[in-house]
Amino acid sequence: MRRKIPLSKRGSLRKRGSLALLVAAALAVLPLLGVPRTWLLYLFFFFVYLAAANMWNLLAGYSGLLALCPAAFIGLAAYTMTILTWLHVPFYVGIVAGGAAAALFAAVISVAVFRMSGIYFAIGTLVLPEILRLVFLRWRPVGGGLSGGGAGYMVKGVSKLSSADSYWLALAVCCVSVIVLAIILRSKFGLGLAAIRDNANSAASSGINVFGLKLYSFIIAAFVMGMAGAVSYTREGYIEPLSGFSINWLMIVLLSVVIGGIGIEIGPLVGTAIFVILRFRLARSGDVSLLIQGIILVVIMLVAPQGIVGLIRDLHRRGITGLIRDLRRRVEGGLGQRPSPILRVAGLRSGPPPVSAVSTPDSLSDSHAPKEEQTWEK
Hints:
By secondary structure, the chain is an all-alpha fold. It has a domain at about 5-245. It contains 17 helices and 2 strands. The chain has helices spanning about 5-30, 35-60, 70-85, 90-115, 120-140, 165-185, 190-200, 200-205, 210-235, 240-245, 250-260, 265-280, 290-305, 305-335, 340-345, 360-365, 370-375, and strands at about 155, 240. It is globular and about 60 Å long. The relative contact order is 0.14.
């Protein structure tokens, strides 16, 4: 599945790989250097959110799958881990098992949801977390009394985990997501996904297994997202349906990817860093924080459709004057002149439908003329 890489690019790839290893090693030793626990907390959430955002970027940015069900994968994996800890299975085994359960769930639902496309696929996946939330609210997977509303349970075996242990778990899952995404994008698998994202019909006519590639990316993303969610609840130490299948998980990955740049490899890295800062700054705002996050999402989609990383690339390529000129042209002609990539993935446009280049005013007027009048002229 791997494609040949030109010799001129192998050197730069090796440099990037070496730099990534150095950064990972430096991050790994931070707890040993006496870094404040607050920093470790921020980095813990950054790693977990980045792992989930990378996989959602794989789906929406590279596979053309606007899957709005990350909460389903995360909640199901976290519950699987929790159930296994009640059955005296070590939590670290439960993390992998939770990812496997999320991947299996993705494979099962793909039979139904892959029959839909565009906005219908998005809506079909959006209801999945809600269905699972209702199921777990009414069903106790482990015997014993309930703790809180619904099937709420303590995660056993994690009470002795230190901040450093949780930090290393999150870092490991984050590294897995980065490595998986890098390998996929530099293989024939990634080329096939890019072709499907641009035009699935053309990709199928070229001999690409559209269903197979979408299914593989869906399962891989579900597995890594599930592990990230399970790691998150090892620190929480408790899970219940309202939080495990909350729409907040969707907002986390959506904001992180869109702010940074959808379809850009380092986009989620930048977006997640900004999101974590906003999350802790808006922690005291309560429900108002969701409104603020929604406003930020809309503004980014309208003003910078390619995200912050894409905006920086445009600035480097065309300069500030070119960007201002482009923004002014879009404002005068409507912000929908350059639709956001996420709208293109959903099969939507943020502006009026285009007029064919071969259409002329006369042909347009004739096409809308009354049938009797056209027949009389003939």
